[in-house]
Write a structure and sequence with these properties.
By secondary structure, the protein is an alpha+beta fold. It has 1 helix and 2 strands. The chain is globular and about 35 Å long.
Length: 63
């Protein structure tokens, strides 16, 4: 994802399965909401994970 005003290429971590291993279906809602989340929610969801392809990684696994 490369958006104006953001620090280069960013990565978003999202949960694909719940605690019991069932596939989560809400990711489509997250994808639809991304334009309104970026960049407002990013500062609160930084991730310690590093990705060689991204300038920064953000954690949305709890979303």
């Amino acid at each position: 994802m490369n958006e104006p005003g953001l620090p280069g290429r960013i990565g978003l971590g999202v949960a694909l399965r719940d605690g019991q291993g069932k596939v989560l279906v809400g990711n489509t809602a997250l994808m639809a909401a991304l334009p309104s989340l970026v960049p407002d929610e990013l500062e609160w969801n930084t991730s310690p994970v590093q990705d060689p392809y991204c300038t920064a990684v953000y954690d949305f696994t709890h979303w």
